[in-house]
């Protein structure tokens, strides 16, 4: 312990200069003139608004990914959020710190370069191959473009690579020093990087699954390792922190400890971190904002301002005589409230069917005095809350009386206007014909704890089951024609199969009715409600609702000028114009280095064919490769080719609008595979020294051509140079590339 | 150190290699580990009584088959009205008998067989099959129902034989057979005119013959080997020919074959030539043969359905020309498009229709107030357009002018014949699709402006080619804005007479919405040719009908705010399907699995995963298992694994499907799940009996366990049989109903 007194303190620094140089070049290529153009470029218009929401701490909902990504972008913030993100190409006002906002993605992009070097090195390929991978990352135009803007792909790629790198480091530690400090560090870092990747974009799940899969295979082999004991007596040993890092103890460590450590680091830590992202997110954005409407009433009430201001101080328990507004829980196609108004259903519909000609009941997406209903006890006449209030419980019979017209909610065996298989719902008018009122409803609390639960404001989700016909009050989702003012249709659904949000309602605004007289009551309805009860949703409830809505939210598939299909990506048949200078023809495109893209795909094909060939030969007991070279080849393929596959193939199953930048994570894995294949060819397929030299010369020539292409496309990557129409035409190497040429 | 990835797993010993063909299997020599387990089982008679054993074997099979047939055919004629989807498939059977063309999202084999069964049993195809609940009256429907029930009855013996072969245990096979015989769901689904019994018949036949041919592996190229291999191929073709769900069993057989070939390839005692022979045999029997049969069913389908019918509109104009009764049949029109021709233009996407215009303007506030242009599905004079040169307005039909053909890349003008307005577009947003431009009719008597000019292009052809009627796929590109004429498929509001919107899309993507073809073509100056020349060849018809089927399938999207069945509902038997009857006076049939069977299946899957992984980990850790346990674990891992794979393949893909799903989609998976239950419980009980061998009654555990499971399922069937055989009287919500106590879940409504 006191060893440093006996010996002099010596610091030996081991600096890999090539790594430093790579980092330097990476930083230079990504950070050079970062604030140019000082205008909104492409999707910055989209992510920018969320940065502003963070700055103003306003709640928002974005279905494109978990909040960690937006948070990372907002980290560079430090402005008041006052900028209108509405148009690509709009000049940034002076209060927007463009440099710091773009800094983090750029740093992530720059650090990907040395990480590529490290990964190939950890795969046990040569320094040369590693340099090759890093240099390819360095000159890949699409990666440069994407990292220099406020976009998330470069951060996602950074965490993907970090996850793979730290897993490899961990795996290499496993052989000589399990349970050492660095072993734990890399294992934990793998989990952390995976969950960060998932937190940036859901796409990160693909890499997470890959890492999990490789880890599972390795753990399976570990299980087969008979030198490790079972759960046995050594359990205490590995639990004792003292034995961590001691090599001689590693033999005694049980298999169970190994599996447990992996499970904790790769399963528990990511889940916890993921929840943490949401926790921080919900703490940061606590004010109500434009996306409130999508969330349930309970969620809205937990935000500051907005609904909370209205519902603050409402009585909690709904009683007979309560005045309420009822919101549909499903909220599709739009969130709306149960509504009625003076107008009646037309006697005869356009298609010739008849109606009951009674008062319309609809669902209305705006706050309105006609949304108020009074919960009435069918056995009594008064419409006020008695004292003490008699709360309504699950299973109680109620009538719902429309506040402004005092007609009660009714349904009967008449076909609904737009959904003829369901019953019409109306407010009953007694025309004195043989059509009696059928206005008794039984209250079912869906999320009840017990059968005697009380109907609570906001918290209870209830269904109204019609007593005579056992139809359920339902929002059909169809818009009524002009006679119904394009409001939404409400029906009585007879065949109610199980739970569906469109049949479930909750009370949003609520007050105890006090006036028996209709005039007074109308005045009461017009005035806002008050009295105070605090209701806080737990974090898990808010998390699960937010997560669920994010996954369920489906923006209608809008076609986009630059959307593309996955097949076009491999051969780079498409590009995206990101920005055009308002006056000159300087422009920024997402356009890859075509030499790298094509050779990456070629390398992948070569890898697949060679592997198949080797596998078949090994099956016939012909071993072309020495065992260690074979294992290296397989592991590199599992991670690099596998990484490409998991990040690319799932897009074929997706129905959303896809863009070229979705391919970039897959591309980075392809770039990692390229030098691996090249070195393999040089080491194992070139038989003589001469062949090897020729091959190296070819590789050098190929790399210079890649550099040349990268340099040629540079004006489109950085957008720093205005090119003449002629030069632009010369850059349009493929007919499908859309390069903007100004007409004068 | 074991290998990092690959290699290691494939060489593991979990191979379904050993075994004997057919019934002899049970008599196989004791060398076989699996058979050894059976040898010590309590059911196993002494060696001397082989004859007796064979008789018993056949008797049991006969018993199982008989019971299956008896339950399926019991009260088959009730109810004597249309139940549920009988209205579709019965109707399609009638179409075959009447030879009228129709369209369905499923391949034709199933409906063809139904039609054949009806035809042979004397049904004349005159019943309309309008809606569920219609009485059959004097029409003969028993032939079709009987055929479906006949195929459905075979499921039980097939499952019995499959499990027997996989586990070599009679008790496991019996348990499986009991589960399936006494499942009300399978029973109900087999009793009506539906595709499902036919589909499941082929799926199980494929599974059985695959298992049989696996157990023939030690005698390759022998007669039974060939027989089972080719039978697998035939069944695969059958399964795929009924519904596309058949792809899953094809996948399973494919995976099995790949594993099999991989094993053979690694067997160094076989020469490469022998391996090549194996490969060829499989390619022949499992790829070529099924493909040929599958294609043949389509050939028959198109041959039988030669008359025009309700399905015409789904297909292209060229296709319709081959249906007698269609107005394109035997028609003769000029082949190449020329200036001055009067034409109709049809969108290539299904159910969009013809380019149409009429004397009504777009309403105030929606783009420019010019004449509407829409698409319309029916034939109408307002669908006629005259094709003219963009720069002259002279009448090209003037006999003094020579005929001039329209060529790919020409600039043209399309004049609406009835109103003499030109097809026009401009920078106004379209009525429904805001990102597209509006298309209108503009100009007076053919005189408009430069926004009326369109470039006509043939997709994937060279410039300068002539444009063929029906065959050429053409696009109209607006000259000024560069957008493409297309239809968004959205229905216009009332002002547009609920016809479909036509727009000019600025996104130059090649979608079918923006591709058109010329259908009618009138030009007196040109010689008419018979359309028969244009008739598509058989491969083209095959391709087209598949495209239409796939599009139809993906078009079955659920609407918002509609109750839909979710895949996770299925294994827990969450809710059933109403086959017939709603009210308490109706004869009600309700498709619902026997909950005892289904929940046992669910439990078994969980137990299997647990026990399977325990055994796999134990083996990987190198635990030394006693011979008996090793044998039983082999059965569990190999046999159970195959069946579990079947369940996985027939269940999980549904989670990825976007189309509307129904409860009955789960039934193929349920068959596999029941087989797994049989294998699992038999093996677990045997393991139990072995573990407690010191206990005097140990042997009894197995017998008692199996017997109680058998009796339990039989009793639950007794309770739930009214679901399948029909019930009248109060609904189960009513405490008076005899079914009242059986409504175990609120979501069941019978």
UniProtKB/TrEMBL annotation, chain A:
Its EC number is 2.4.1.109. The chain crosses the membrane at residues 15-32, 123-144, 151-171, 183-200, 205-223, 259-286, 590-610, 630-651, 658-678. It catalyses: a di-trans,poly-cis-dolichyl beta-D-mannosyl phosphate + L-seryl-[protein] = 3-O-(alpha-D-mannosyl)-L-seryl-[protein] + a di-trans,poly-cis-dolichyl phosphate + H(+); a di-trans,poly-cis-dolichyl beta-D-mannosyl phosphate + L-threonyl-[protein] = 3-O-(alpha-D-mannosyl)-L-threonyl-[protein] + a di-trans,poly-cis-dolichyl phosphate + H(+). Its main location: endoplasmic reticulum. It is a multi-pass membrane protein. Pfam families: MIR, PMT, PMT_4TMC. GO terms for molecular function: dolichyl-phosphate-mannose-protein mannosyltransferase activity. InterPro entries: ArnT-like_N, MIR_dom_sf, MIR_motif, PMT-like, PMT_4TMC. SUPFAM superfamilies: MIR domain. Keywords: Endoplasmic reticulum, Glycosyltransferase, Membrane, Repeat, Transferase, Transmembrane, Transmembrane helix. One of its GO terms (cellular component) is endoplasmic reticulum membrane. Residues 315-378, 389-446, 450-510 form the MIR domain. It is found in: Endoplasmic reticulum membrane. Pathway: Protein modification; protein glycosylation. Transfers mannose from Dol-P-mannose to Ser or Thr residues on proteins. Belongs to the glycosyltransferase 39 family. This is Dolichyl-phosphate-mannose--protein mannosyltransferase.
């Amino acid at each position: 312990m006191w060893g440093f007194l006996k010996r002099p303190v010596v610091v030996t620094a081991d600096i890999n200069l090539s790594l430093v140089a790579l980092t330097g070049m990476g930083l230079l290529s990504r950070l050079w003139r970062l604030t140019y153009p000082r205008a909104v470029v492409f999707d910055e218009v989209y992510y920018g608004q969320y940065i502003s929401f963070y700055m103003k701490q306003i709640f928002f909902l974005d279905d494109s990914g978990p909040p960690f990504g937006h948070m990372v972008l907002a980290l560079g913030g430090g402005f008041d959020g006052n900028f209108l993100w509405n148009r690509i190409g709009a000049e940034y006002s002076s209060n927007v710190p463009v440099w710091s906002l773009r800094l983090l993605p750029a740093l992530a992009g720059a650090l990907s370069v040395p990480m590529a070097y490290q990964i190939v090195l950890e795969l046990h390929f040569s320094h040369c191959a590693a340099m090759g991978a890093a240099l390819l990352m360095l000159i890949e135009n699409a990666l440069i473009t994407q990292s220099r803007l406020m976009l998330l792909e470069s951060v996602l790629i950074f965490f993907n690579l970090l996850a793979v790198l730290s897993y490899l480091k961990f795996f290499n530690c496993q052989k000589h020093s399990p349970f050492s400090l660095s072993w734990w560090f890399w294992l934990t870092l793998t989990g952390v990087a995976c969950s960060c990747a998932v937190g940036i974009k859901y796409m990160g799940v693909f890499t997470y699954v890959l890492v999990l899969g490789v880890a599972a295979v390795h753990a399976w082999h570990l299980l087969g390792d008979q030198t490790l004991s079972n759960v046995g007596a050594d359990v205490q040993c590995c639990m004792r922190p003292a034995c961590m890092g001691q090599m001689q103890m590693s033999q005694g460590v049980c298999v169970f400890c190994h599996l447990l450590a992996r499970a904790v680091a790769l399963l528990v830590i990511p889940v916890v971190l993921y929840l943490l992202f949401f926790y921080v997110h919900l703490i940061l954005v606590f004010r109500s904002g434009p996306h409130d409407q999508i969330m349930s009433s309970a969620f809205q009430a937990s935000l500051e301002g907005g609904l909370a201001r209205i519902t603050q101080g409402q009585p909690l328990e709904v009683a007979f005589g309560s005045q309420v507004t009822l919101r549909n829980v499903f909220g599709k196609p739009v969130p709306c409230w149960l509504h009625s108004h003076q107008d009646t259903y037309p006697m005869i519909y356009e298609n010739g069917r008849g109606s009951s000609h009674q008062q319309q009941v609809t669902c209305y997406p705006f706050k309105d005095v006609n949304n108020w209903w009074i919960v009435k006890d069918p056995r009594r006449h008064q419409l006020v809350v008695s004292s003490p209030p008699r709360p309504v419980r699950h299973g109680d019979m109620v009538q719902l009386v429309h506040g402004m017209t005092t007609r009660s909610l009714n349904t009967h065996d008449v076909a609904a206007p737009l959904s003829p298989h369901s019953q019409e719902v109306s407010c009953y008018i007694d025309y004195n014909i043989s059509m009696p009122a059928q206005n008794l409803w039984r209250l079912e609390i869906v999320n009840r704890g017990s059968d005697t639960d009380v109907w609570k404001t906001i918290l209870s989700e209830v269904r109204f089951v019609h007593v005579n016909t056992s139809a359920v009050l339902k929002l059909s989702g169809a818009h009524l024609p002009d006679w119904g003012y394009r409001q939404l249709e409400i029906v009585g659904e007879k065949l109610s199969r199980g739970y569906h949000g469109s049949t479930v309602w909750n009370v949003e605004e609520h007050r105890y009715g006090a006036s028996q007289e209709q005039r007074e009551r109308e005045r009461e309805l017009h005035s806002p409600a008050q009295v105070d009860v605090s209701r806080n949703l737990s974090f898990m409830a808010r998390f699960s609702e937010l997560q669920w809505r994010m996954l369920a939210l489906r923006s209608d598939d809008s076609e986009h000028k630059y959307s593309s299909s996955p097949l076009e990506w491999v051969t780079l048949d498409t590009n995206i114009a990101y920005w055009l200078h308002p006056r000159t023809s300087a422009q920024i495109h997402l356009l890859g280095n075509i030499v790298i893209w094509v050779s990456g795909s070629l390398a992948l094909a070569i890898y697949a064919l060679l592997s198949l060939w080797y596998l078949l030969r090994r099956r016939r007991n012909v071993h072309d490769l020495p065992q260690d070279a074979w294992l290296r080849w397989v592991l590199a393929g599992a991670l690099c080719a596998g990484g490409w596959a998991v990040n690319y193939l799932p897009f074929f199953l997706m129905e959303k609008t896809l863009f070229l930048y979705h391919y970039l994570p897959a591309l980075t894995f392809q770039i990692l595979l390229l030098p691996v294949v090249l070195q393999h060819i040089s080491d194992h397929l070139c038989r003589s020294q001469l062949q090897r030299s020729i091959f190296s010369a070819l590789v050098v020539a190929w790399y210079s051509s890649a550099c040349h292409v990268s340099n040629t496309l540079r004006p489109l990557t950085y957008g720093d140079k205005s090119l003449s129409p002629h030069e632009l035409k010369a850059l349009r190497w493929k007919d499908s590339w859309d390069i903007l040429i100004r007409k004068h | 150190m074991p290998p990092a990835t690959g290699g290691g797993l494939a060489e593991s010993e979990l191979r379904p290699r050993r075994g004997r063909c057919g019934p002899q299997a049970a008599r196989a020599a004791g060398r076989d580990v699996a058979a050894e387990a059976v040898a010590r089982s309590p059911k196993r008679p002494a060696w001397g009584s082989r004859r007796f054993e064979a008789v018993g074997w056949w008797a049991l099979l006969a018993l199982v088959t008989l019971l299956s047939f008896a339950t399926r055919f019991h009260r088959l004629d009730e109810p004597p009205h249309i139940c549920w989807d009988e209205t579709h498939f019965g109707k399609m059977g009638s179409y075959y008998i009447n030879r009228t063309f129709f369209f369905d999202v499923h391949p034709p084999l199933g409906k063809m067989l139904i039609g054949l069964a009806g035809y042979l049993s004397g049904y004349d195809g005159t019943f309309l099959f309008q809606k569920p609940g219609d009485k059959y009256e004097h029409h003969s429907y028993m032939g079709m129902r009987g055929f479906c029930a006949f195929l459905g009855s075979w499921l039980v013996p097939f499952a019995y034989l499959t499990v027997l072969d996989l586990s070599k245990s009679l008790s496991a096979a019996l348990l499986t057979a009991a589960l399936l015989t006494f499942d009300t769901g399978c029973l109900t689904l087999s009793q009506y005119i539906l595709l499902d019994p036919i589909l499941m018949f082929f799926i199980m036949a494929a599974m059985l013959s695959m298992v049989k041919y696996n157990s023939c592996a030690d005698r390759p190229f022998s007669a039974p080997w060939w027989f089972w291999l080719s039978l697998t191929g035939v069944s695969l073709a059958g399964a795929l020919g009924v519904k596309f769900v058949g792809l899953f069993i094809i996948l399973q057989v494919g995976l099995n074959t790949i594993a099999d070939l991989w094993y053979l390839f690694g067997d160094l005692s076989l020469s490469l030539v022998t391996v090549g022979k194996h490969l060829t045999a499989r390619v022949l029997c499992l790829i070529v043969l099924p493909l040929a049969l599958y294609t043949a069913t389509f050939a028959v389908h198109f041959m039988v359905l030669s008359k025009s019918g309700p399905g015409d509109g789904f297909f292209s104009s060229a296709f319709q020309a081959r249906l007698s009764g269609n107005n394109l049949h035997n028609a003769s029109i000029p082949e190449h498009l020329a200036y001055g021709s009067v034409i109709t233009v049809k969108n290539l996407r299904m159910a969009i229709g013809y380019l149409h215009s009429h004397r009504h303007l777009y309403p105030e506030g929606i783009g420019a107030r010019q004449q509407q242009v829409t698409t319309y599905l029916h034939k109408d004079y307002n669908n006629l357009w005259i094709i003219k040169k963009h720069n002259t307005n002279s009448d090209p039909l003037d006999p003094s002018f020579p005929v001039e053909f329209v060529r790919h890349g020409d600039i043209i003008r399309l004049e609406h014949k009835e109103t003499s307005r030109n097809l026009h577009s401009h920078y106004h947003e379209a009525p429904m699709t805001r990102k597209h431009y509006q298309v209108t009719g503009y100009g007076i008597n053919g005189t408009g402006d430069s926004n009326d000019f369109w470039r006509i292009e043939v997709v994937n052809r060279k410039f300068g080619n002539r444009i063929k009627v029906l065959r050429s796929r053409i696009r109209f590109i607006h000259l000024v804005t560069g957008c493409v004429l297309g239809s968004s498929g959205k229905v216009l509001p009332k002002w547009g007479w609920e016809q479909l919107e036509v727009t000019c899309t600025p996104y130059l993507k090649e979608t079918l919405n923006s591709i058109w073809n010329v259908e009618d073509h009138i030009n007196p100056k040109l010689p008419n040719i018979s359309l028969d020349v244009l008739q598509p060849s058989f491969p083209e018809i095959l391709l087209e009908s598949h495209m239409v089927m796939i599009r139809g399938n993906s078009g079955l999207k659920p609407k918002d705010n509609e109750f839909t069945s979710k895949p996770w509902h299925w294994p827990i038997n969450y809710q059933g399907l109403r086959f017939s009857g709603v009210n308490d006076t109706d004869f009600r049939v309700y498709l619902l699995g026997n909950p005892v069977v289904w929940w046992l299946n669910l439990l078994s899957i969980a137990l299997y995963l647990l026990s399977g992984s325990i055994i796999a980990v134990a083996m990987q850790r190198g635990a030394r298992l006693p011979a008996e346990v090793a044998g039983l674990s082999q059965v569990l891992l190999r046999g159970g694994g195959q069946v579990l794979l079947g369940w996985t393949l027939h269940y999980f893909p549904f989670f990825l499907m976007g189309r509307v799903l129904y409860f009955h989609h789960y039934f193929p998976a349920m068959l596999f799940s029941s087989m797994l239950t049989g294998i699992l419980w038999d093996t677990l009980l045997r393991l139990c009996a072995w573990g407690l061998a010191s206990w005097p009654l140990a042997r009894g555990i197995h017998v008692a366990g199996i017997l109680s499971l058998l009796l339990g399922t039989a009793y639950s069937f007794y309770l739930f049989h009214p679901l399948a055989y029909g019930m009248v009287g109060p609904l189960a919500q009513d405490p008076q109903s005899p079914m009242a106590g059986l409504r175990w879940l609120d979501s069941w409504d019978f």
